[in-house]
Amino acid sequence: MLKKLTEEIGHFRQQSHNFKILVWTNVVYALVQPVIDIFVAAYIMRNSNDTSKVVIYQLCIYTGIPLTFLINGFLLKYINIRYLYAIGMMLSGVSMIIMMSLTDLTLVGIGTAGITMGLSFGLYWSNRDYLALSITNDANRNYYYGLETFFYTIIAIMVPAAIGWFIQSHDGEAQKHVAYEIITGVVFVITIVASVVCFRGKFLNPTEKKYIYFKFHPLWHKLLALASLKGLAQGFLVTAPAMLIFKILGEEGALGKAQSIGAILAAIIIYFIGRFSKPSDRIKTFSAGLVLFAVGACLNGILFNKIGVVGFLLLLLIAKPLMDLAYYPIQLRVIDIVCKIEKRSEFTYILNHEAGLYAGRLFGAGTFLVLYFAISEDFALRYAIGIIALLQLLSIYVSKKIIAQGNRLMPEADVEKPTDPRALEETALDLL
Fold it and tell me: Residue 172: inside a domain, yes or no?
């Protein structure tokens, strides 16, 4: 066991300097992700007991993201990518400060906090995706995302349980509010630490300055369809666990415990899939994640009780990393291919990809809100997730078409980027 661990550490050390710095930056920032994704939603639920406000908050986030992708494309012409990346991480703490300062959770206040969080995510994800694309190639992307997901899943065990315990250790609403304020302060400190780690990297801005186009290769249109299907669940799935647990399981303590179930097993599975799987295995990985998600969502819809919620969360802990582990390398490989065909900047496609995600997010969140206002809150919580999960199964068919067409256009070996000038410059810097 110790020998195997030593081998894995050695394999990580063999990666490039920027590869390692990007992983560590994202791992540090991952410490705040459960707070952002789960406990902000729980805070809204605690202070309003209105699931529609949680979904509206999420919609505001997803409206701010594509707007910031556009702004980031402009800013990259003048500002080093490390600064933008760092600002994106720290803005998440600012958004939480805005939320905690609200004496009354009005739609205007929730919207302001949501848009600010969207600005944070937009800066973070647009620059993170570009850096992941520029420092990896198709051969090591499974490993990169598997490694990140391994750390994310481990963090998903510790952070929700610790925060849930911390909140529950305070008696009374006033004391619980103080607990949330303390958590917000810790989040802001962690974002600063992640920014410091980021500045140890030798990250370079995109060389091309034009990012907005309206006509694309047919392969890219297929990926936008896949992005829309992915966005369906993102529309409210980030906050759905918090809403379900608060309604059915109870308090934040139960939230932390439920999120920790099975996470260790999931982390180990994901790491080894990422470490040893080949690009040709991505469809199998993607399909497994989608099917597990659909099974969990249907289980929740059929039972809609504590067993159903815990079962859904357990399957989601495994399903979501599997889907992400396959989706992101598929996305980046398509960008590699269409970049060479259309001779455009990689950031062009990262920016345009967000439009596909946003369309799906609007439809997914809209599905929940329509069911919520037209029928009832319980009906929306019970069936919206199942509807979305079953629709997402179409992703298996679309992803197969994408990979088949991509292989026809360009064999896997031709998508490697060892002669990228940025890679050569990074190697020279490392030698110095």
Answer: yes
pLDDT at 423 over 50: no
Torsion angle of C-alpha atoms 310, 314, 316, 318, degrees rounded to 10: 180
Compute, in degrees rounded to 10, the torsion defined by CA atoms 415, 420, 422, 425: 140
Q: Which two tokens stand for residue 78?
A: 């003048």
Count of CB atoms situated within 10 Å of the CB of 73:
21
Query: Encoding tokens for residue 84?
Result: 């933008």
Predicted confidence at residue 127, as pLDDT, reads 92
DSSP conformation class of 170? S
pLDDT of 126 strictly over 50: yes
The residue range of the domain holding 82 is: 17-412
CA distance 126 to 145: 16
Residue 184 lies in a domain: yes
Cβ pair 333, 282 in contact under 8 A = no
CA 214/CA 208 separation, integer angstroms: 17
- pLDDT tens digits, residue range 300-324? 889 888 888 888 888 887 888 889 8
C-alpha–C-alpha distance, residues 63 and 361, integer Å: 9
Residue type, 390: L
| Structure-token match 């939480």, residue found | 96
Is residue 221 a part of any domain in this protein?
A: yes
Which single residue is written with the structure tokens 């630490």? Answer: 193
Task: Assess contact for 120 and 92: CB atoms under 8 A.
Answer: yes
Task: Find the CATH number of the domain harbouring 392.
Answer: 1.20.1250.20
Q: How many domains does the chain have?
A: 1
All residues at 6 or more sequence positions from 89 whose CB lies less than 8 Å from its CB, including other chains = 29, 120, 124, 191, 194, 195, 198
Residues 112, 118, 120, 122: is their CA dihedral positive or negative? negative
Summarize pLDDT for 361-416 with one digit per residue, the tens.
Answer: 888 888 888 888 899 888 888 888 889 999 999 999 999 999 999 888 877 545 44
In the predicted model, is pLDDT for residue 204 greater than 70?
yes
Tokens of 346: 């990689």
CB 206, CB 130: distance < 8 Å: yes
Residue 9 lies in a domain: no
**DSSP output for 192-237:** HHHHHHHTTS-----S------S---HHHHHHHHHHHHHHHHHTTT
Would you give the end-to-end CA distance of the chain in angstroms? 36
